[in-house]
Amino acid sequence: MASEPKKNVRKNIYKPSSVPQSSATPHAEETERPVRLKVPKMSFDNNKLKDPRLQTSIGLSLIFLSVYTCLALLSFVFTGKADQSIIENVGGITNLISSGKEVQNWLGLLGASLSHLLVYNMFGLGSILLIPMLFSAGYELFTQGNGKLMKFRKLGYICLFYMLWISVLLGYYVVIKDTPNLLGFLCGKIGLTVADGMYSLIGWGTIIFLILAVLIHGVYIVKFNAVSKVIGKVTKNRYSDKSEVNTTSETENTTLSENESDDELEEDEDLENYSEEETSIETSSLTNENVIEEEITEEPNEIEEEAAQDTGLVPHNAQLPSVVEPEAPIVTESVPQQAIKVDPISVDVNIQVEHVQVGGNGTNQIPPTQNYSKQQSRDTTSEMPPVKEEKKESPTPNPSSQQKKVTPNTPPIIEIEAEPTKSETIKLDPPAPPKKKEKVENPHELSDVSTTENVDKADLNVLKKIEEEPDEIVNIEDMDEYDPKLDLSHYKYPDLDLLHPPVESKAKVTKEELEANKEKIVNTLRHFKIGIASISATIGPTVTLYEIVPEVGIKISKIRNLEDDIALSLAALGIRIIAPIPGRGTIGIEVPNNNREMVSMSSVLATEKFAKAKMDLPVAFGRTISNEVFVADLAKMPHLLMAGATGQGKSVGINVLLSSLLYRKHPSELKFVMIDPKKVELSLFNKIERHFLASLPDAEEAIITDTKKAIHILNSLCTEMDMRYSLLKSAGVRNIKEYNTKFCNRRLNPKKGHRFLPYIVLVIDELADLMMTAGKEIEGPIARLAQLARAIGIHLVVATQRPSVDVITGMIKANFPARLSFRVTSKIDSRTILDAGGADQLIGMGDMLLSTGNDLTRIQCAFIDTDEVEKLCDFIADQTGFSAAYMLPEFEEEQPASKGGGGGSVDDRDDLFEEAARLLVRHQQGSTSLIQRKLSLGYNRAGRIIDQLEAAGIVGPFEGSKARQVNVKTEMELEVVLNTL
Ligand SMILES: Nc1ncnc2c1ncn2[C@@H]1O[C@H](COP(=O)(O)OP(=O)(O)OP(=O)(O)O)[C@@H](O)[C@H]1O
């Protein structure tokens, strides 16, 4: 009871403020009021601010700003990823203009900077709520308060609260997840910082706090109807017991339900006055006089205006206060209820009601019901009496202050007396000031939802919205994927025009040739008493496959043994018998064509089979015996061993493989490590160093031609492999594809060392040379990579012209399931490379056999000449590339064992060893990524430091996905440890 009247103090205070200034009767007000309003006592600055032109201009600017922000943020959805990396690369928004970089935001640099600032640097996703705030404020100012979408203050409270709340909630998710995800991008720095701080303070209690914050915010701002109803009902029951006023239950129920509605209806009004009335006025009610004095002094004009709004008249009659008896008769229940029921539609009606209510009853006591006080907050005239009462109770030793106290309580009486006149006055009055309109409009707005049913709906919507919020977050989480290609977003894939157009081969196999070969085969077999049921031919680019179905009872082994005899009788090189052809139930005899057909690179790349191949690393090798384009996925092979005698087409084969990949992959997705001991074979690819090559940090040239460097880079690849495995492990995925998908979905935090992992294809053109000079040093890392690297996206293509066992050792061979052989000189070599004969039967010039496990496929390798490769490389090299080749981890020659296990000698230890130790001890978390993040180090260096810390006994051993244990508990203790090292 006590608090409710206080709420209205301000309104009551204002009214008497005008009283001493005029002794005019209500009639006189009609002429005086405009004058009074035009001679405000407010300060000069305030007047300036109220200049309608200024307000309209500011309003218009704010509306434009809201639209601009909306567009910038909308564009951010599509372009934010690209722009973010640009902004971060140039070192922040401030450097963006000077960097001269182009951004993709629809609104250019400013749009990109604004959205980056709002989303990334501030409130993340919550920043969207800034738009309705700006627009609402702008609209309100622009329309001079005549048009309101929603009370700005209310909107402001809600939006500001939820901006921070959403940001903190997302930040909390990021903190507890401890793995990078999309929300790390969308929570904003503020949310992340607050959530981080809260999490370290209260742990999971953060979420309780957030829920509590929403509830409290709801109580103050949104008002949960469901809650308030329960409380209202409880209070009602209590109240009906205690009420001094004897009301019938019927009346009470009516009042309650109306007041519940009213309570909701007043939302806007309450909110508008929320901070000032409910907080400051309530607090200051005990020293009411002071407040009266202060407020009158500070805002005399506003006071007048508000008084005018509340009553519909400017209360100028100074005599009236003395006329009114403070102890007026008690208002009967029925009258105020009527007053509430007659919801004011116009000023006249409103005032009429007030007059009836107050004047008719001579109000000075209000039934101490909650319902009634609720009504008061809306009904200006009924607000007065409780204030009077309260003031009476407050100690007032000073008579002057007592007088002041009386003054604020007098306006109702003014209205009472002026009531009939006021109605008339308003009809004659000059146009009402804007604020007055507002007051009149509000009841209309509120009356739209003035039924309990409507209020319930409104509340349900509020509750529903709150419930729906997490879902919205999840939906948005899926929206914004990281796209590695945006690093070089303007990169153009090579065009087929760069290659020679496919030439229509005139060298077709003639019918005569086919018939002649058929005759020879049938006769030869008949000669060895092998009957043939049927024979058919499939013409390939190099060879024609004759498929025979032997008569029943013929042993296949018999035919297989006749291979040489058939070759002799056909008098042709390169006859290969496939008995039986797997899955066909036939026996195949491959006979080289008299005139072979060249398979051009463009003809295979132009096929749909290659263009639409859903493969990670598609390679169009050439055409099979049945003239089909053969496309294989290098990632599935997963490593390829190539062999072939000199001049049989190995180098062309490697170029075909590299070109296929260059045609299909983006520079951000694929990197080549090239080792070319022959120095000239792969040199053409030097040009695409900044696009597609990977190299060691200190390498002069990306393509390795030196054996020592080859050893370094192979070991470096092993380190890269280990690092990638660590990343996969911490990401909880099994292979590079899953990892990259997770990373692109922003579920892995780059700050914790995660990054998009491009495929790496290691190409060695001539293994024999390396094996001769370095042996085990080469074999070791190759075998290791071949064994383990497939899951982390490193694939090997190793070629040699000498497929002997000292080059293709058992260890290497065992880990290369896919083998490709061009023509070799001996059956032994064929067996070494393919574990089968046949490669010695090939006819050269790209005729090859591909073995993938059990299958052996004869393929005519496509042909790409040096010119074409050069053009292709030029085309790529002419485009903007990365600033350097893809950096592989540094390779360090084996280091001498550390002395005494103290984390290495002082010289060996990293410069940041001690700092890292303090960091881990402070956080009590033995995490490499913590060192990486806090000390801004690369993974390698951070990894070395943590190893040194482990060796020094400061942290425990590696524990898988968990952080290492920190053995030193306090920084003091650490200093002692560091001194002893
Ligand atoms: N797929 C092919 N189609 C047509 N001709 C080919 C094909 N592959 C190779 N040739 C021919 O064979 C020649 C030698 O090929 P390539 O240089 O690839 O052999 P190589 O095995 O790399 O030899 P080396 O080991 O001596 O470098 C080419 O110049 C070309 O004339």
Automatic annotation (TrEMBL):
Keywords: ATP-binding, Cell cycle, Cell division, Cell membrane, Chromosome partition, DNA-binding, Membrane, Nucleotide-binding, Transmembrane, Transmembrane helix. Residues 1-32, 241-292, 358-451 are annotated as: Disordered. The chain crosses the membrane at residues 58-78, 117-135, 155-176, 201-222. It is a multi-pass membrane protein. GO terms for molecular function: ATP binding; DNA binding. Its main location: membrane. ATP binds at residues 644-651. It is found in: Cell membrane. Residues 626-831 form the FtsK domain. Residues 259-280 have a biased composition (Acidic residues). Residues 363-375, 399-408 have a biased composition (Polar residues). Belongs to the FtsK/SpoIIIE/SftA family. This is DNA translocase FtsK. It comes from Flammeovirga pectinis. The lineage of its organism: Bacteria, Pseudomonadati, Bacteroidota, Cytophagia, Cytophagales.
